[in-house]
Amino acid sequence: MGMRFTVLSSGSTGNATVVDNGETKVLIDVGFSAKKMEALMKERELAADTIDAIVITHEHSDHIKGLGALARKYDLPIYANEKTWVELDRQIGVIAEENKRVMETGSIEEFGTLRVESFGISHDAAEPVGYCFYDGEQKISVVTDLGYMSEKVKEKIVDSDALVLETNHDVDMLRVGHYPWSIKRRILGDKGHLSNEAAGEALCDVMTNKTKSVYMAHLSRDHNLMDLARLTVNNIVQERAPESKQLRLMDTYFDRSTKWDVLDSE
């Protein structure tokens, strides 16, 4: 059937996504309690005990809040690089040794016909990564929590059928917001989060005629609006790549899941 995916929820308070190719289901991050994760999956008629593996981007709480509880309850293997595992061991409780899987940055794991590749990104975590998922010619890329889009990251995610891409904040909203300047400087820095404008510029560099949908993810509830993110990204794309009529800019939600997005099988 090819690949499909759903962003179970995304935002500054929690993140989780599922990629499914009909043979294997992989969960990216567990940023909510186990109970909330079960409810989000139920929205998409997905049972937690059908998940084959969990892959972790980094150790911040909005990506691992329910990781330990969910993995223990359903005996799920967790994949992360060694530096991230050092941090996970301090936060998620005891995990069965056979379920602690090391997936080094830049490596590829094969789950049947589903291939998962990790790549390094810039964020203030131990060793943060994004992921690309491949099934035949199909490709889905998930990249959030990065201060800037490096050329190496662009090389990894270029020519994706679908992208889950961070549009964390509007720069002007952040600058006048209530956060102390130390936090604003962190968010705006090279190891912070991607702005709407930066996401739009990066998208123009990595999208091709193959790219059909881009999910705007990890929005700040204090310093962004989905309508503003969509407008900003769309304006940049229309200015730089006006021929890209097939591209769909899709919303994500902090409190509910997106519908399954099924990639074309052609």
Automatic annotation (TrEMBL):
It comes from the Bacteria. Gene3D superfamilies: Ribonuclease Z/Hydroxyacylglutathione hydrolase-like. Coiled coil: none annotated. Residues 13-218 form the Metallo-beta-lactamase domain. InterPro entries: Metallo-B-lactamas, RibonucZ/Hydroxyglut_hydro, WalJ/YycJ-like. It catalyses: 3',5'-cyclic CMP + H2O = CMP + H(+); 3',5'-cyclic UMP + H2O = UMP + H(+). It holds the Pfam family Lactamase_B_2. PANTHER family: EXODEOXYRIBONUCLEASE WALJ, METALLO-HYDROLASE YYCJ-RELATED. Counteracts the endogenous Pycsar antiviral defense system. Phosphodiesterase that enables metal-dependent hydrolysis of host cyclic nucleotide Pycsar defense signals such as cCMP and cUMP. This is MBL fold metallo-hydrolase. It comes from Paenibacillus violae.
